[in-house]
Amino acid sequence: MRRYIRVMAQGIFYKAIPKHAEGLLLTTQLSRAVYNFWRMTWIRSECEHVRGIRDRFRDSIRPGQPLPKAYDRALGALELLVVNGDPQLGEDLLHMERNPAAPVDQKLLYDQDPLEWCLTQLQGRPDVQTNYDHAVMFSFLEAHLAKSNAKDNARIDELLFQELSDLASCHEILVSIRLHRPQNEACDLDELLESETEMSRIAWKTWKPDAQLSLDKKDISKLGADFSDSFHQATTPVGKKNTVWLKNQKLMRTALENFWDGLKKSCALALGQSGLMAGEISFCTEIISATTNPDYKALVEGEERAVMEAVKKDRGTTAGPAQKEWGSSGTEELTTAISKKKNKTRPAEAETNSKGNVEGIAALKIDTPKSAADTTKTIDWDNFVHAMVDMGFSARNGGGSAVVFENQNGDGKSAGGRIIFHKPHPVPKVDPIMLQSWGRRMSKWFGWQKELFVPEP
Fold first, then answer.
1. In terms of C-beta density within 10 A (0-12 exposed, 13-18 middle, 19 or more buried), how is residue 67 classed?
2. How far apart are CA 277 and CA 261, in angstroms?
3. Strands (E), 168-296
4. Where is the region Disordered (predicted)?
5. Most confident stretch, 102-111, 345-354, 439-448
6. In whole angstroms, what is the distance from residue 255 CA to residue 228 CA?
7. In 238-341, which ranges are E strands?
8. Hey, which of 25, 118, 168, 431 has its CA 20 to 30 A from 176?
9. Residue 273 has pLDDT above 80, yes or no
10. Residue 342 pLDDT more than 60?
């Protein structure tokens, strides 16, 4: 969370808002991320619905003939969801207008600030023929960032790059639908919203005219202000892990848990007002319910036990002789030469588990000791990519900052396992917090542990 706040606070938007609105902005950003997750799960459910209809009418889908009505309707509904599914949750909580002195003429904007011109064009609706195709704009953006200076590149931060990756994913889905042959007929949104068949599915329940999916501004404002005071503005626990450190850590964790619980209640209320059933609300809010997960509680209890055991051990340690001479330790000081050469990594073992989703895979070992260097150093993105290639993966661009790593077997064909990481921007370095997160994912899906990688001799 602290890393997310730090990344968000780097933007001009954050610096331009008044102090009392910082907590509201943080809550708005997080609720938007939650909605984006919901939207992707709803798109997935609609894709599964399309696949089910296709399987039923597979023998009736023939070149030169109209699509079966049910299949045509399912494709049209999916297309409308992708085109019209812009985030709504918390959209009206904050409002900022463009600087009147900045150029608004598109030709002038293209000449003076091509990056902003491109980002402006990417906001155009894909079903308007006079707008630029998003694929063209993605290519323009990639070419511009490749030749622009570091200051211009830094204007697109990590969070904006993730938004662009989501947009690229939706564009790819939309292109796949519109290239489908035989092609489906365009579906009318108002007509679809009057259909009981579509309105029975979770993806469309929030689209009802009387079901505006939005959070209560008053509740969100208070939640954000409280969270800013108790977590963002509070002092991070530092120093040795003792009883004082543990007390401060509990305060921070309580503030974080209260925030997620409050956001969960607000989201559940908004979803309920949109017509979702209790089971559907529980499904949607699961993504922000980690604090109630038994595994999470076990992690917290394990951390507290480890700290208390270390405190007891320190108390039981016999004190050594008093030091009488300042600067003298009585033992020879040890020095370590630090090499400037960057070490590449290669697999220590040839045999790896590369199955993407295997039942019964071992949980991540959280008690593996980490040195101070492990938790503070960054690694170059290129070195990370090379390590993945050494593990038998190929890398390809997935749109925006997303890079898809696919496991390859001996003949170059996909072996079934794949994982997606976002390339850091504007500086191509993976910070330690992000690296630990990636390590957990690779341990979960591939069973990898730190010991699998060793420095190249």
1. buried
2. 20
3. none
4. 314-354
5. 439-448
6. 9
7. none
8. 118
9. yes
10. no
